[in-house]
Amino acid sequence: MRLLLIRHGQTPDNVRGAIGTVLPGPGLTELGQAQADAVVAALAEEPIEAIYVSTMLRTRLTAEPLSAALGLDINVVDGLQEIVAGDLEGHTDTDAIHLYMGTIFSWWQDFDGRIPGGEDGNEFYGRFTGAIERIAAEHAPGSDKTIAIFSHGAAIRAWASWSSRNIDAEASRGHVLPNTGVVILEGSPAEGWIVVDWAGQPVGGAILDDPSAPDPTGESK
């Protein structure tokens, strides 16, 4: 099985550099919509079998152009949403961002580390892994088709790095994930996963990047 883990398009929170994890969350900016539109052409060569999104609005909006182009339904799956920020929700200050991302990176050594008022590593990895397992169960074992999964910056970075046999803790810090960046994994829940590609820019190219916008869940901290 081939998983495309696609980060959503730019949101107003991304522009402000705010940590935003509450449901349903904001929609997309004008640039975010352009990024979503560009996903269609960028993934045209992928034999996509199904489209899944998180329970957050921005993933559905990002998936809609691809859904329309392929004639595939959008399936909402609980568990794919962003890592819960708790007491740090809405913060834009450096200390809060470092605490949020630093706690997430600490899960490599200790799953019990908890974001203040938010999730610990056991809770996050349990619900995201469960979502991936439910998605995989909907498709034939050994399927070589691609599954498009629209999720979130910190969630994709954390889960893909931890679940992959070829990514270590240090690499996970340096692997950034911009809006509509894609991480591609191959494998299965039973056999495990390998990262085969980690995009360093939006799928439509650098023209759709916004280097002026702070990005707490997509950049290296």
How would you characterize the overall build of this protein?
The protein is α/β, with parallel strands linked by helices. It is 36% helix and 16% strand. It contains 7 helices and 6 strands. It has helices at residues 12-16, 30-42, 57-70, 94-106, 121-137, 153-163, 169-174, and strands at residues 2-7, 48-53, 74-76, 146-151, 182-188, 192-198. Strands 3-2-4-1-5-6 form a 6-stranded mixed beta sheet, sandwiched between helices. The protein is globular, with a radius of gyration of 16 Å.
Question: Topology of this protein?
Answer:
Blueprint: E1 2-7, H1 12-16, H2 30-42, E2 48-53, H3 57-70, E3 74-76, H4 94-106, H5 121-137, E4 146-151, H6 153-163, H7 169-174, E5 182-188, E6 192-198
Parallel strand pairs: 1-4, 2-3, 2-4
Antiparallel strand pairs: 1-5, 5-6
Helix pairs in contact: 2-3
Quickly describe the structure.
The chain is an alpha/beta fold and 221 residues long. The chain has one domain (2-143, 154-208): Rossmann fold (3-Layer(aba) Sandwich), CATH 3.40.50.
CATH topology: Rossmann fold
Number of domains: 1
Percent range for β-strand residues: 15-25%
| Biggest sheet statistics | 6 strands, mixed
Structural class: alpha/beta
Task: Give the overall average pLDDT.
Answer: 90
What is the approximate shape?
globular
Classified by CATH, the class is Alpha Beta
List low-confidence stretches.
none
Compute the number of strand runs.
6
Count of DSSP H/I helices: 7
Jot down its keywords.
221 residues, alpha/beta, 6-stranded mixed sheet, 16% strand
